[in-house]
Specification:
The structure is a homodimer of 153-residue chains.
Chain A (H helix, E strand, L loop, with lengths): L2 E5 L5 H9 L2 H5 L11 H12 L3 E8 L2 E11 L3 H4 L2 E9 L8 H16 L3 E7 L3 H9 L3 E10 L1
Parallel strand pairs in A: 4-5
Antiparallel strand pairs in A: 1-2, 2-3, 3-4
């Protein structure tokens, strides 16, 4: 198995939607159904990400199969001497492929993207129910230094 | 006192840098010195935020005095049916003005900006050392549902 990481294309969107839905925590929140890939809002969101230099939708693929995804957002700011932050969101690995180290490869690759761009910080939040994910991020060098607050509108 | 909220201009940058530095947790991290306002990186970051439709640097002012700041980032995504997230970063209130409800006004105003734009979620992280801030965000309706992971590069 050789994983490759690349920017998602329109053709990847159905596979990404399947990965986003293939998740117990999202299901418990009521977001576990596969969104309709013909929903205009999904395509508008894809086009917005694709057109934005500070947002990248990523897929990890094994040959032709999409086995993971995440989104990278580069955030300019005045803190930390004007350095950018890299925010990682919507990390998913195919449930059939978990426990094989793919998530670690994906996150390490994402961190290297941030480092190469000169970011001063990489950050992400993870639902408190995901105890396995927390051990995983700690092992990758992240510190669980913050509370993550969410307000659904 | 009547607070007004507006997009920051170049003239506000020195006051914002002073607010960012006026913070015990940032000082403990080694980021508590006022950055040099003539540092080219700070101005490059300001210009990047100012030119980006998905980033807004905000000041809260009482008359001519800047008493608070935060940064808003609107993040497109495929989750939650293609809705944008609003990320709030770098929230500061002048130490001389804390405990007067200004932070609550600033965050409520920020949440309303997100709601008016059609965001499906507002999110932020807060250092685990800021116990007062956590009570404050909970009171404003946020759920501390996530762990916030950071990796300094």
């Amino acid at each position: 198995m050789t994983l490759t990481f690349r920017t998602a294309t329109r053709d990847d969107v159905p596979a990404i939607l399947t990965l986003l839905a293939d998740d117990g925590v999202s299901r418990d929140r009521g977001f576990g159904t596969v969104p309709e890939a013909d929903d205009a809002r999904i395509w508008a969101a894809f086009e917005a990400i694709d057109a934005d230099d500070r947002n990248e939708l990523i897929v990890a693929s094994d040959g032709a199969e999409v086995v993971g995804t995440c989104q990278l957002t580069y955030i300019p700011g005045l803190t930390r001497n004007g350095g950018e932050r890299l925010l990682i969101e919507a990390v998913r690995i195919s449930s059939a492929r978990r426990g094989q180290g793919l998530g670690g490869e994906l996150i390490r690759w994402a961190v290297e993207q941030g480092r190469a761009r000169g970011c001063t910080m990489v950050q992400l939040t993870s639902d408190k129910k995901r105890a396995d994910a927390h051990r995983f991020y700690t092992k990758l060098g992240f510190a669980a230094s913050h509370e993550g607050f969410k307000l659904a509108l």
